[in-house]
Write a structure and sequence with these properties.
The chain is α/β, with parallel strands linked by helices. The protein contains 13 helices and six strands. It has one domain. It has a six-stranded mixed beta sheet with strand order 4-3-5-2-1-6, sandwiched between helices. A hairpin with a 4-residue loop joins strand 1 and strand 2. Helix 6 runs parallel beside helix 9 and helix 11 crosses helix 12.
Length: 291
């Protein structure tokens, strides 16, 4: 399964039936001395009618007193999408004196032609880095297909937690997420953009395949998708997946010393494969159970 685009944004979405009662889900649990920490692999964007939480996640949410996500969606700084977009654009600015046309060189005309098919004129983004252009193109193509972040699993859970008075915590900040892509060498950012353009034509098939694996809790299939991305682009996948998993691990382990039960919600591909959060916990000797 080739799923580099969907893996990069951790956006898995399609209209498929829910799994049968005997199917697993992307929910795992770890027992502490006095509590349980649940790990739920999420979908960041969905379309109207794509559904909500699997049953195992519903049970985990009901049991948890507190929630932890990649970023704290209860942070007032994240409440204004316009302000958030401006912060992202600021992180994507090229160094003074550099332009997107210069960075892309001989590839500029071809990339601009393809971007215009998606409704994006690169002349308007000439001060922005290639990673930002790739992200915008993907967001546009997802939006054309009806995928909306406000329908994603995190947003569903965050709204419910606010109504239920359950505290929300974050493992990292939005600025840290932007910095991961901004820190890529320019040659890798250019390659990332070119690969994104090549694979947008396959996005529907990739999303369908990945969501089918997510719905059925097929950790092996999701892990294979992640491995395919690593094989093709290790320079990007290592900081986006393995390095973040390791950075989160101590905070997740610390939750096991509490008395409250926690639901930790991160992109599904952070919980499968080599050096995933689940794998790293097992390496430390914890028993992690998939539900």
């Amino acid at each position: 399964m080739n799923a580099r685009i969907a893996t990069l944004v951790l956006a898995l979405a399609a209209s498929l039936a829910a799994p049968g009662a005997d199917a697993r889900s992307t929910v795992w649990s770890v027992r502490g001395a006095h509590n349980t920490v649940y790990l739920f692999g999420s979908i960041h964007v969905l379309r109207p009618g794509d559904g909500g939480l699997p049953e195992a996640a519903e049970r985990a949410y009901a049991d948890a007193e507190q929630l932890v996500m990649e970023i704290d969606l209860d942070d007032p700084a994240l409440a204004d999408p316009g302000a958030m977009a401006l912060r992202m654009q600021g992180a994507a600015l090229l160094p003074p004196g550099e332009t997107l046309r210069q960075v892309l060189g001989a590839d500029y005309a071809a990339i601009n032609g393809r971007a215009q098919q998606s409704g994006i004129d690169l002349a308007l983004l000439d001060r922005h880095a290639p990673w930002f252009v790739a992200t915008m193109l993907l967001q546009v193509e997802l939006a054309k297909r009806g995928f909306r972040p406000e329908l994603g699993i995190e947003q569903q859970i965050a709204r419910r937690a606010l109504e239920d008075g359950k505290p929300l915590l974050g493992l990292e900040t939005a600025e840290q997420q932007f910095a991961l892509l901004a820190g890529l060498p320019m040659s890798e950012q250019r390659r990332f953009l070119l690969m994104t353009l090549e694979e947008i034509a396959l996005i529907d098939e990739q999303m369908d395949s990945l969501l089918a694996a997510w719905r059925s809790g097929d950790a092996a299939a999701l892990g294979n998708a992640l491995a395919a991305g690593f094989d093709a682009f290790p320079e990007l996948y290592r900081p986006l997946s393995e390095d973040r998993n390791r950075a989160w691990l101590d905070d997740i382990v610390a939750l096991l010393d509490d008395r409250d039960d926690y639901l930790v919600v991160v992109g599904a591909l952070h919980l499968v494969g080599r050096n995933s959060v689940v794998d790293l916990l097992r390496q430390r000797g914890y028993a992690v159970t998939q539900h």
